[in-house]
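Justification of computing resources. Each target in the renewal requires a structure prediction run like the one illustrated here; the chain below, 321 residues long, is used simply to show the kind of job we budget for.
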Amino acid sequence: MENRKLAFVGLEADTTSACLSMLKIMNGRSSIEWMQAEPEDADVLMLANDDSDANRKWQGSNKPCIVIYHNNEDKPAAPYTLSHPFRVMQLISVLEDISGTLSHDGQRQQTTAQASAEQPRKATSQQTDFSESLYQAVTGKNTQTLYQSRSPKGSLFVSPSAGAYFIQEPLFNEVRQKAATLPALEPAADTDLSAYTRRPIAELAWMTAQLASSLPAWLPENGSFRLKRWPNVRSAKSDRAYLSMSALMTKQPCQREQLAAHAGCAQQQVDRFLSACAMSNLLVCETGAVAPSTRAAAATHEPRRMGSFIQGLRHRLGLSS
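Resulting structure tokens:
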């Protein structure tokens, strides 16, 4: 597990306390463990939204800074901001964005993607085009704020910055029942979305992934995958195989065959899980990292547990020598 250090500068005591409580929650659900440190030793700084000498000093340094501003204030012109009060998922999202700039994970992932793009597997359907366009929209670094998919059943809009998609009920029912074919997303102009229902992007990613019959062409077949954090959707929380894969992948990178063996499920379910996590921007692909065999470890400890049980039983019956 990767460790990062976070420092607080100029924040009120209750804000600092709330952040520390959130970090405790995060450290059990994320592949990165955050701990408090002094500003000089920290990787990331959380600053109050004021013009103090201390803030100017640290904003002028090369450390990433998250500016905390109250919701009744104007949003500051800073790369990373949080409006107080904020939720733990918002803090996780900002810290993960910063972690990507601090590590070489993004570079390794890009290298893997480039190698895969040189010999891509053939796309099998229009739905594959949509899933790839959703993946690119969610994980890309472009400034496009709104995308649109136009289908005969209606239009669907995706806003990666808002973490949401917008859809009307007839099309939503078609997508949920796996009866709609969605064309690839395209950049869209500003649109009045008042007649559309706002829903989380993660939900769209999981519904889309269920239509796939194999690993999408934009993910490497022989890659090692890990999760940034646990998926926060109902289907991932209620399925035993998904829970098993989530628990393992937040601790270490895994290959597809390892996940199928560990979760005791079909390879198709593993591929759908990886696809959904990728489209939710939760998946990191690493090269040269292979998880140990979890079943071998369990088998190693089984005789030891049985021996201890028998020894304890003999002692309770007065048969021990």
